[in-house]
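Quick one, tokens below:
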């Protein structure tokens, strides 16, 4: 597998190797060479940002670097260097013994581009190439087939994973590597990944996908998820595995209509979009190499439209991901396994007769026999046996008492937005939702959006005047209560703090506030270039005590060197809150993580926090459990949309609070259902289905 400009990977290195400039290449790294095996001159760029000349010698298993300090600082006895390939010599291909030849090379033996890739040929093939130049002809597909065959011959088996050097922002654990190898070797790419919540099923699926893709075994890929996870899957596949997917709601996809399913080779889509008849008819005609279904417990009932849709899909490889494959009875397990390997558990009638205890559909009559059959299709790791553990989360709600002008702005603008949206006039649902969230963040954020709306043409004069008065009220609040509360917290908290806000205007406001207070800080947001994002993280790791981040910082960044987090504003979707906390509270964190929630009385955020904390103890859940709980709700709506609907249709703050308490009761029932299913699965499977436990 040759190196190409634009390749990026993480390379483990010890201090001794770094100082000597001779970095060992082990495992799959040795295969990142030209097929001829010769040393490859490359230009690399590391975290220091300076181009560095090096020689990649896969034959000797060494990366030789003359100035390793240009790659980045070396801290401690060992670390992982993130490297980007900026330049690399073209790969050298051998023509090989192809009988009468394989390619019309009338241009001779010099370097040339083939399909946009610069290549050169080994001098040892000069005689054969000269014969081609004299007029011999052979079809190009024959040459391509030979080159592909030689590439496959050079590719190791699945015991050696070739995709690991290309992972970013993730270092897989032993149980994940074992799960990937088991799924690819023993299960041949058709597996039920049923690890406990928080052990990284998504990472396992991503590595399996990467292995198949890099070995040219998977080109067309479909990922099916609940609606709330579509964007998260797309972002993680791009960031962690360097794989670009289009989502079903992306503008180019929607413009292409149903034909988009054929046009785009790698798609992430929600269950509910894909199974709609007009889409399903097209999707079911497409031969997919790999289909991944997240939250696959939605497929436990074979009588549903979703199960039947997935069962009809044409797919070579299939991955089903769920932490709770059984909830009500063992027939659910039969339905999942049948999607993967029809006949593995025989027919439903035979399964009931041979494996289900009479009088109790949740109890197997021969647990060991059932586990032996499942070992060919199912992998389940448990936290107790992997040694993966996280420290405690300690959450505190800091109630911020707003001033009278702040209270007036919040109450008056909220009622204006609710009434205007319900009347169906010029105040749209999206406009009301955005402004209401900004009100819960800062007056500055609301003022920026109000000014933008005022500048739009077509407003009724009375409405424009109301908006202008609200903007003036917001801009007059330069010394708001939440800003003072943050400064007070900074004086009391001695360590680094990660401060999250959803809005850039609030971030800019906090930057000015911290600058005036003399606090060293860095800013992180989605509008920064990659290099600037890296600089912000390094500054936070170094001299900056505070990192003020938008939601972009909640997307996969590992900031475990800090253990204090402030939710300056609170997302209406608890999964977003979870993503924020997950930057600090994750495997590898050695200290308890402190979460400070700043909320004002009488706000939507206060009511939401009461429901999440009092009803389901959200801040005590394991990473990923909130997803499982929300997945139990019998609704296709995003949680944020549920909250918006309750707020818009409520007659006032008290009615809204009552409706949110009812939603909290649903969440509690969902949590209890999840915990019951988890306990049942633990009893059924135990540790028998961990990689290496089967035959």
């Amino acid at each position: 597998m040759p190196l190409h400009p634009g390749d990026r990977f993480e390379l483990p290195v010890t201090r001794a190797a770094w100082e000597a400039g001779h970095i060992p290449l082990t495992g799959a790294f040795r295969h990142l060479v030209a097929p001829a095996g010769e040393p490859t001159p490359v230009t690399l760029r590391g975290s220091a940002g300076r181009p560095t000349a090096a020689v990649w010698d896969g034959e000797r298993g060494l990366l030789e670097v003359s100035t390793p300090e240009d790659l980045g600082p070396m801290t401690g006895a060992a670390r992982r260097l993130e490297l980007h390939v900026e330049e690399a010599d073209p790969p050298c291909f051998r023509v090989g013994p192809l009988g009468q030849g394989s390619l019309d090379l009338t241009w001779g033996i010099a370097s040339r581009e083939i399909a946009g890739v610069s290549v050169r040929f080994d001098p040892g093939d000069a005689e054969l190439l000269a014969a081609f130049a004299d007029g011999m002809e052979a079809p190009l597909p024959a040459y391509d087939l030979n080159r592909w065959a030689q590439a496959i011959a050079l590719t190791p088996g699945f015991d050696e994973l070739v995709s690991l050097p290309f992972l970013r922002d993730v270092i897989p654990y032993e149980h994940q590597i074992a799960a990937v190898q088991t799924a690819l070797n023993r299960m041949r790419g058709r597996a039920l990944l049923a690890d406990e919540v928080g052990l990284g099923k998504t990472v396992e699926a991503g590595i399996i996908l990467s292995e198949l893709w890099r070995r040219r075994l998977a080109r067309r890929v479909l990922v099916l998820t609940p609606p709330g996870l579509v964007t998260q899957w797309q972002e993680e596949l791009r960031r962690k595995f360097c794989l670009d997917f289009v989502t079903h709601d992306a503008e180019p996809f929607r413009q292409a209509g149903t034909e988009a399913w054929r046009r785009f080779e790698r798609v992430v889509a929600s269950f509910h979009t894909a199974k709609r008849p007009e889409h399903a008819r097209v999707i079911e005609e497409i031969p997919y190499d790999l289909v991944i279904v997240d939250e696959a417990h939605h497929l436990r009932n074979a009588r549903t439209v979703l199960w039947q849709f997935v069962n009809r899909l044409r797919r070579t490889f299939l991955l089903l991901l769920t932490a709770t494959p059984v909830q009500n009875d063992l027939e659910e397990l039969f339905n999942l396994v049948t999607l993967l390997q029809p006949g593995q558990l025989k027919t439903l009638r035979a399964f009931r007769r041979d494996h289900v205890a009479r009088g109790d559909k949740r109890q197997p009559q021969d647990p060991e026999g059932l586990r032996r059959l499942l070992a060919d299709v199912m992998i389940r790791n448990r936290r107790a046996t992997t040694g993966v553990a996280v420290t405690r989360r300690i959450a505190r709600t800091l109630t911020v008492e707003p001033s009278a002008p702040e209270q007036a702005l919040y109450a008056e603008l909220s009622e204006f937005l609710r009434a205007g949206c319900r009347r169906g006039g010029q105040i749209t649902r999206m406009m009301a939702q955005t402004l209401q969230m900004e009100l819960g963040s800062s007056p500055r954020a609301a003022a920026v959006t109000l000014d933008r709306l005022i500048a739009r043409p077509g407003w009724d004069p009375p409405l424009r005047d109301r908006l202008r008065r609200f903007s003036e009220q917001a801009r007059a609040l330069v010394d708001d209560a939440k800003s003072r509360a943050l400064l007070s917290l900074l004086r009391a908290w001695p360590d680094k703090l990660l401060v999250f806000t959803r809005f850039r205007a609030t971030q800019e406001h906090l930057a000015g506030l911290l600058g005036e207070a003399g606090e060293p800080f860095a800013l992180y947001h989605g509008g920064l270039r990659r290099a600037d994002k890296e600089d912000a993280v390094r500054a936070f790791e170094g001299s900056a005590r505070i990192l003020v981040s938008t939601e972009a910082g909640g997307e996969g960044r590992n900031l475990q060197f800090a253990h204090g987090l402030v939710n300056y504003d609170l997302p209406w979707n608890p999964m977003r809150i979870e993503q924020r906390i997950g930057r600090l509270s994750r495997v590898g964190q050695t200290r308890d993580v402190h979460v400070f929630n700043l909320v004002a009385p009488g706000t939507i955020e206060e009511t939401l926090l009461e429901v999440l904390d009092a009803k389901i103890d959200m801040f005590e859940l394991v990473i990923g459990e909130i997803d499982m709980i929300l997945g139990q709700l019998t609704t296709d709506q995003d949680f944020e949309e549920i909250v918006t609907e309750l707020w818009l249709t409520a007659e006032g703050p008290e009615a809204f609070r009552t409706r949110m308490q009812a939603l909290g009761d649903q969440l509690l029932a969902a949590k209890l259902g999840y915990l019951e299913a988890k306990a049942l699965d633990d009893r059924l499977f135990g540790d028998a289905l961990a990689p290496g436990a089967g035959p």
